[in-house]
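ingest -> validate -> predict -> emit
validate: passed (alphabet ok, no gaps, 863 aa)
predict: started
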Amino acid sequence: MAAGKKETPMMQQYWRYRKEDPRVPADALLLFRLGDFYEMFHGDAEEGARLLGITLTQRGGYPMAGIPYHARDTYLPKLLTQGVKVAIVDQVETPKPGKLVERDLTRVLTPGTTLEEHQLDARRNHYLLALTSDRKGNFHAAWLDLSTGEFQVASETDPAKLMPVFHAIDPKEILLPENTSIKWAHKEELRAWHEDFDYYCQNRPVTILPDFQFEVDAGARAVLDALGVLNLNGFGLDVSHPALGSAGSLIAYATDTLCAPPKNLRHIKEYHTQRTLLLDPSTMRNLEIFQSSQGGRTGSLIAAIDQTVTAAGGRLIEQWLAEPLLDLKELNRRQQAVADFHAEPARCGALTDLLKGIRDITRILGRLQNRIRNPRELGGIRDTINAMPEIREELAAFAGEEVQALHGKVSSFDALREHLALALADELPGNIADGGVIRDQFDEDLDYLRSLTRDSKTWLSNFEATERERTGIKSLKVKYNGAFGYFIEVTKANAAQAPEDYIRKQTMKNAERFVTEELRVKEKEILHAEEKALAREDQLFQELVTRILEDASALEETAAALAQCDLFIGWAQLAREWDYCRPEIAEDDVLDIEQGRHPVVEQMIKADRLGLRGAHGFVPNDTLLTAGEEQIALLTGPNMAGKSTYIRQVALITLLAQIGSWVPAKRCHVGLVDRIFSRVGASDELARGNSTFMVEMNETANILNNATDRSLIILDEIGRGTSTYDGLSIAWAVVEHLHGDSEKGPRTLFATHYHEITQLENTLARLRNFSVSVKEWADEIRFLHTVIPGAADRSYGIQVARLAGLPATVITRAKAVLEELESEGNVLRETLREPNAPKIEPKPKPKRAPKPAPADDDQLALF
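emit:
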C-alpha cells in the first residue's frame, strides 16, 4: 500500500523515515520499534525475512516481518556479515494510551561502523577504509577502527604500494567517491591496478559517497573538530595533507551512522610505505600470514605466534603483522621487552593470570563515548581497574627497563576505583531501565525513593491479605501490568462476592478485575516513586559514565600498555617453548640464519606427534644470503623433500624479526628487508579469466618490476605452468634478470626442478647451487630434508610417484620414457647456452655450507 491519507498515523510516521528522512540510506533495512518488536514493512520485510530466515506475514495488505527487541544482538550480526546496512528507529518516549509514541532514528549500522560487542570479533580490528585520488594521479587513503579510535592516513603516487596495507587491514567496508571508478578505468596506466582493486572489492561492502565529502579543506576541519585540536602538528601532519579528504569522509560517514559525531577519536598518524616492510597480497597469501590455504586462522603464522590472553593483545599482533617495520630503534625496543619477560618466567605466569581477568577497556570506552551504554560495561571498567594495584605490583618486580617503561604507563586509578566500588551494585543488569545498578547507601534521594517502593510492596501484601479476609475470597490476588496498573483479580466463580465498593476494571475469560479508590490512590504513589527512583538511578548512572570518561586518556594509555605486556609475555613464552633466539637486526644486506625452522610447520609436526600420527621432529637448516656476494641460492631436489617449506621459513623468519619478535633459529642476523616477494603455489583465478600460468606470470612480473637490492624474494617452480621448454627458458631468464649486471641484487631463494639452470653457477658470480638431500637404496628414497651445497643430480619424480601409489605398470613405463628423454637432454642444454657469451668467473670465496641435521629426522612438507 502506498503512503497516503489512508495510512494509519503509525504507518505515516514509518514512511517519513523510510522515504523522507535523508539520514536513512536508501539501501538500508529499516527496523521500526513497535512495542516489544522491531518490525520491517513492504520490501524491507521481504528482504529481511530472506536474509534472517524469519517468517514473512501480511498485515493490512502489506508484507511484514519482525524480530524481538531483546534479541536484536542475535539478529543484527547476521545482516552485517552479509554486507547489509540497518537503520534503527526507536521509541524515544514511554508509550501512553491513545497517543502516537514519539520515535526517532537512533543508529545506522553498517558493516564498517558497528560498535556493539556482539557485532565485533574481539580479537580482530574492525576497519572502515576510504580511498580517493586527485587530478595529478596521486592516491589518498584513510582507515579508521571506530571501535578503538585507531585512525591512519596515507598518500602514494603508486596505488600498488597501498594494496599491501589494504589486504593486511582487511577493511569491513570501503568508501569511494561516486566518480572514482569511471576515472580510474579510463586511465590506461591505472587500468590494471583498477582491475585488481575491483576484484579486491568484490567480497567487501562498498559505499559510494558524493565527491564533495572527500574535499581536503572540509576533511581537515572535520579531523580537527573530531580530535579537538587547533592543528595537526602534534601528530606530524599538516592541515593541507591530501589524505585528510579521505579522513574527513570517514568522520562524516561515522557521524551519519552514529547519529552524532564520534567522540572516541584522540589520535591520527600517517602510514609511510617507505618506513614499512611491504608484503604484496600474493605474498601474504602464499606465506599464509593471516589465514592458511584452507581459509581459516588455524595453520597461519598469526595463529602460531599469538599466545595473548586479552582481546586487545590479539588485535595488537594483527596490527604489527600488518605493518612490519624498518625502524631499528622500535624493533630493538620490542625485542628487549620480550627479553625482559623471557628472563622471568614465573612472574610472567602470575601476570598472565591477572591479565586474563581484565576486560576490553578500549572498546568499552569507545561505546561509552559514543552513547552506547549499559551497566555491565561500567562493571567491566570497575573489575579491570580493581586489578590494577596487583598488576602494577607484579610489573614493578621485573628488572628489565622496557617492562619498567610499560609499568610507568599503567595507572592505579585509586579515586575512580573507590568511587565505583561505592556506587555500583555487585550484580549489574544489562539495561539501566531494569534498575538495581546503583548500590544502596550511595545516594540519599535514591535510598528514600526505594524505601517508598519497598514500603509500598509491604502495603500491597497487607492490602491483599485484608481484602481476602474482608471478602472471604481466598483466591483473591492483587496484581500489576503495564497497561492497567494495579488491580484486584477475582475468579469468575467468586465475582458475585465482590463488595459494592469494588469498581470493575476489566473482564477476562476466567476472571474479573477490580479496583478500589484506596488502591487507586496508592497506585499513583507507588508508580510515582518507582518512576522517580528509576529517573534518579539513570541520572546517577550517567554521572558515573561522565566520571569514568574523565579518566579516558589514562584508561586508554593503560589499556595500550597492558596489550603490549600481554603480547610480549606471549612472545617470551613462545621463545621458551619453541627455543627461539633473539635476532640481530642491522642496516646491512646480510641474511644469516643458523638452524632456522618453519614457525608453523614445526608446531604442526609436534601436534601430529602428540596425536600419534608421526614421531619425527623438524629438521633445521642454515641460510646465508647477501646482496653483493651470495645473492641467489638455487635450490634443487625432489618433490616432498621440503624445498617449499625451507624457502618459506626464511621469509617468515625475516618477517618475524621485522615485527620485533624472536625467531625459530639457533642464531639469526637480518639485514633490514624493504619488501618480501613470493611466487609459490599454483592457483587459477577463473573468475578473472586467468589460468594458473597467467597468475604465475603476473606475480613474477610484479616481483621483477618492483624488487630492489634490499628485497627478499622466494620463488618456487617458476615456469611449471607451461611446456617444459617454455618453462625452462622463462625460469632461466628470470634468474639472469635477478642477478643482473650490477654489483648487487635482491636476496633470492629460487627452488626449481629444471636442473639445467644449475649451470648458471658457472656464469653468474652471485649464484650458489644448493639441494635437498635424499638417501637412496634399491630404487627407494628417503627424504632427509637437509639443505646441502651443490646441485641435485636428478628429481626422483618416479620414486615419489611410487610412494604415492601409482600402479607398477605406470612406474615401469615411466622409467622407459625417462631414459629416452634423458638421452636427448644434451640438445636442450646446448640450445640454451649462448656459444659466444663471455663466461663470468665467480669471485674466489668459500661457500657457506648449511649444517646437516640428523638423518633420521623427518620434516612435514607444506605441499
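The longest helix spans residues 517-550.
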